[in-house]
Amino acid sequence: MFDPLPWLILLPLTWATLAFVQGPGRGGRLAVAGLALQVALAATLAQQIVTGGERVLAVGGWGAPLGIDLAVDGLSMVMLVLTQGVALPLAFYARCYFAGHAGSQRYFWPLTGYLLAAMNALFLSADVFNIYVTLELLSLAAVGLVALPGGAGPVSAAMRYLLATLLGSAAYLLGVALLYGVYGSVSLPALASLVGADAPLAVSLAAALMLLGLMLKTALFPFHFWLPPAHGGAPAPVSALLSALVIKASFYLILRLWFDLFAPITSVLAAQLVGGLGAGAVLWGSLLALRQTQLKMLVAYSTVAQVGYLFLLLPLTTGTTAEVTASAWQGGVLQVVAHGLAKAAMFAAAGAMITATGRNEIAGIAGVATRLPLTLFSFALASVTIMGLPPSGGFAAKWLLLGAALASGQWWWIVVMVAGGLLSAAYVFKVLRQAFLPVDAATDFKVLPRMLEWPVFLLALASLLLGLTASELLHLLDAA
Questions:
Q1: Which tens digit of pLDDT belongs to each residue from 257-306?
Q2: What is the spatial distance between Cα 405 and Cα 385, in angstroms, rounded to a whole number?
Q3: Residue-wise burial string across 355-364, b where 16 or more C-beta atoms lie within 10 A, e elsewhere
Q4: Backbone Cα Rg of the chain
Q5: Is the peptide bond before 449 cis (omega within 30 degrees of 0)?
Q6: Mean pLDDT taken over the chain
Q7: How many Å apart are CA 74 and CA 53, to the nearest integer?
Q8: What are the pLDDT digits (tens) for 326-373?
């Protein structure tokens, strides 16, 4: 039987290398073909997981502890499907976008391929050291993408991003070293069976270092300083990739460590503290988004706020009943997928509006409602998910999280989620109101190609329809 598991890593590595060999600005068609195959591979693997359960592959026939294992279960499969599903429409969008921004294209396609290969490898890795390697590859590709346009602004943002990601990786690696020093293994399944409630202090220190490093990479408040300039200043396709996918990779690892490896030593107090940081992200990020005058910076600060919702999963699943844990777990993972689809659509829509108007300021999008109705409609559809309105995926996710908070008596998280939803509506309607303002008939709007609008619409529509098809996603999540 054909095994798609290793090809999800090998295929993007292959087309990225071929795109690099072709030279600067080349490789778009190759990337689209490769991503189409990756979507098919992910769908095939998902079907195998649903019917056969968790999969483990010993690379080269040498499994852990001597060799390297690749493993996939329901959670990693959801992340793989999200990654390929978002990257393919963004590839069509990017080909069209860079046709008008050739100066910032250069090595976009090779870097994107290496980024996707690293991300797929991260989701499939079954030991903490190989996870570190994939984190480094992912971070270096992401920093390179941020620096693509050149100039003082993008390079400064990329250097800040590089500093943050290196600090996060160093903390994570130090934690890995401590775990290896205590247990003599880096295999996740082996370590999970060894870590107990009576684990030595070095293990608790390792947990703190690894989780803090990953929180820095996820841009959780107050470690979010690098995200707005990096996401707001990068080309629109890069911003969409980073916000929709890259920060989800480090959050995925936080879930793995919290629930699989360090579960015996996590405490309710620690979960509440992390939840408090998430609440700070929701409120502070939303307030700063409301104050922005530039469109992409508003969307970037919205990402800071939406990341906070993800971390509310931890206090709702630590020290609670099985029913509350199940509801919160499903809501948290559903929020990851809904935000990935919606934020990719919002950044891509913002890039299309900026391309058409020639201005990044929110004040410059007056008249977009009549000149670019499909793009604005896509932005509004994605915003429905961000605000958590029915029937979107964001509504389904937050409904599950609200239900878990209510059932566990943690009413303060309900207040945070409701306040965050209202603030989200405020900054979204700030954009929509400006778009509907009249504009002088002589104002010049650039005509957008279809491929700069339809991929955005498909991503936004998917984020909306996710609320109606959430059961399929949750079935995949629970399959292994």
A1: 999 889 899 889 999 999 999 999 999 999 999 999 999 999 999 999 99
A2: 20
A3: bbbeebebeb
A4: 21
A5: no
A6: 90
A7: 8
A8: 889 999 999 999 999 999 999 999 999 998 888 889 988 888 888 889
Residues 6+ apart with CB under 8 A from 477: 74, 75, 78, 330, 333
- Tens of pLDDT, residues 199-228: 899 999 999 999 999 999 999 999 999 999
Measured distance CA(357)–CA(61) in Å, rounded: 56
CA atoms within 13 A on the CB side of 254: 29
CA distances from 270 to 199, 221, 401 (A): 16, 16, 19
DSSP annotation of 479 reads -
What are the structure tokens assigned to 49, written together? 């997981």
The stretches of 100-127 forming alpha helices (DSSP H) are 108-124
Local structure of 57: helix, strand or coil: strand
Q: Residue 389 — left, alpha, or beta (φ > 0 → left; ψ -120 to 50 → alpha)?
A: beta
Domain segments of the chain as ranges: 275-480
What single DSSP character describes residue 320?
A: S
Distance of alpha carbon 306 from alpha carbon 4, whole angstroms: 33
Residue 291's identity, in one-letter code, is R
pLDDT digits (tens, 9 = 90+) for 53-71: 888 888 777 767 767 888 8
Q: What number is the average pLDDT over the span 175-187?
A: 92
| CA separation for the pair 217, 427 (Å, rounded) | 25
Handedness of CA 147, 153, 155, 160 (dihedral sign): negative
C-beta of residue 232 within 8 angstroms of C-beta of residue 361 = no
Helix extents (H) in 292-410 = 295-311, 313-317, 322-357, 368-371, 373-387, 393-407
